[in-house]
Amino acid sequence: MSTDNSAAIDAMLDAAGLNPPAEEREALGRLYATFKPGLDALYALPEARYEAPALVFQAAPKLEAWGA
Amino acid sequence: MRPRPWCSRPRRSSRPGAPEVSATIDAPLTLAEAAAALRDGTITAVDLLAAVTARADALDDQLGVYLHRFGAEAQEWAAQADADFAAGIDRGPLQGVPVGVKDILAMSDGPTTAQSLVLDPAWGETDAIVVERLKAAGAVITGKLSTMEFASGLPDPDKPFPLPRNPWDVTTWPGGSSSGTGAGVAAGMFLCGIGTDTGGSIRIPAIFCGVSGLMPTYGRVPNAGCAPLGYSLDHIGPLARSARDCALMLSTYMGADPRDHYAVDLPVPDLLARAGGSLEGLRIGVERASHLGVVEGEDPAVEPAFEAAVATLDALGATVVEVTLPHVAETLTAGMITCSGESMAYHRNDLVDRLGDYARSNRSMYLLGALFSGADYVQAQRVRRVTQRKLAATFADLDAIVMPAASVVAPGYDTLLAGDVMNVLGGVHTMYWDVVGNPALVVPMGFNGRGLPLSLQIAAAPFAEDVLVQIGDAFQQATDWHLRVPPLAREVGAAAA
């Protein structure tokens, strides 16, 4: 993991108020580094260029709530 | 009492190298058998409960299946089922049948922990919609079952919960996160149970424990009352001995509910309508490219067992063709980004205040969600649509796709606890189907050289669970892998019979 990535990861964790121990931060950095090429590949997928996301916002939600 | 057909029924002979089928057991092995026996008077619900309770008493210290057992409550439910039968009231196939419930579904009769130190107990004081429906169907719920913390990560020996063990070899993991459900069905501690599946958590324990597991289409079953892992990935579904049993169980609790935001309001089909033993007229795709020879350490028994299973489907009348799944790597990445982001949203406040109360294996997955941007999350949802669109075109020409469910067998605890969750689950081929939302069924297809189960995975188009049941049921009429009983459970059953 590069120093730049470490700094960025620390900044994101700190911004979220998350404070894992140093060894877990390092492990997280290694894990993120393994995911980064796959993440970039999602943006490189030509078929996704004009695709709409699998998200549906309902203007008229179901208003009954479980457990209420 | 009339003769007990499950004790005298002749069993098929064992195949070379495979564990023997139980010759004598103390209770029906399958839900279908139990439902028939309860109706023809060869067993009562109270006696059936006593039989599975005896197994649990004998085995649970070893297997760690239960987090909480319902003793008196289960007795009452069983007695009520018998009274209903006597009065001519029939609530369906689960009436009087012992059922286990994974402890991430809320239940008013006892604690709901999600196997976590963090979950507020007050959250789980109302029955989950699925639990409501099980009760209305007359099920005898025997207890809340072990999982992993919030249904993800790995077992954590540092937390005050049992380490679930695999009844085929107690030095191995039964899979997760529906660990107790898989191990309990395999050991006969209940006849079927509820699992949940976000990346494979119904199917992985079904694979490792040699039972059947059905992940329904996303939205087929209401999730309200189930502690979330990934809101857009979570599926509640059955584990049981057979595909037929899974269909019987799922039939009692699928369908929309106004209190659930995700369940789809579609007509509830007869899942057994197509079951009959023949696969004539079906076109089945066989996926080898992403499932065979792709994992370091693939068990050598997987490929021959899979090819034998494909030959069986062919012999049953299906037209078998080669197929390749689209965008496997991208879809799995999209799923991981989705799951880590959705779980981070749920857990962030507790992670800030109580990080040490979380299992270590989970912390890394949740914290990863803090590193992806909102745009990354949306891009993952765009990629999910791309894959769905391509799969829809694939299924326009196919009724189902089959593949090995895993390249590996149940790992030993020594290697499991020394590794990380990504490595352990890298040999399991389940998450793709969570990400696209299609239904998938796993059924046993053999054993490896150490007597550990192997499974076939069958996937179909959205809301085509009836096709999965047709194929799984036909396969299980032609094979007997799903009826194999682990030796330690067989010994208990023989002693009680």
Strand content of chain B: 5-15%
Superfamily at the CATH H level of chain B? Amidase signature (AS) domain
What is the domain total for the residues of chain B? 1
Alpha-carbon distance between the termini of chain B? 15 Å
Name the overall outline of chain B: globular
Calculate the mean pLDDT score of chain B and round it: 93
Q: Write down the overall mean pLDDT of chain A.
A: 89
Write the CATH fold name of chain B.
Answer: Amidase signature (AS) enzymes
Q: Low-confidence parts of chain B lasting 5 or more residues at pLDDT below 50?
A: 5-25
Contiguous uncertain segments of 5+ residues of chain A: none
Going by helix content, strand content and strand pairing, the class of chain B is alpha/beta
Ordered list of secondary-structure elements with their pairings:
The complex is a heterodimer of chains A (68) and B (497).
Chain A: H1 3-15, H2 22-43
Helix pairs in contact in A: 1-2
Chain B: H1 5-8, H2 31-40, H3 45-63, E1 66-69, H4 72-86, E2 98-102, H5 129-136, E3 140-145, H6 179-187, E4 192-197, H7 203-209, E5 212-215, E6 235-240, H8 243-251, E7 283-286, H9 302-315, E8 319-322, H10 328-354, H11 360-368, H12 374-395, E9 400-404, H13 413-418, H14 421-425, H15 431-436, E10 440-447, E11 453-459, H16 465-478, H17 487-496
Parallel strand pairs in B: 2-3, 2-4, 7-8, 7-9
Antiparallel strand pairs in B: 1-3, 4-6, 5-6, 5-10, 9-11, 10-11
Helix pairs in contact in B: 3-6, 3-17, 6-7, 8-16, 10-11, 10-12
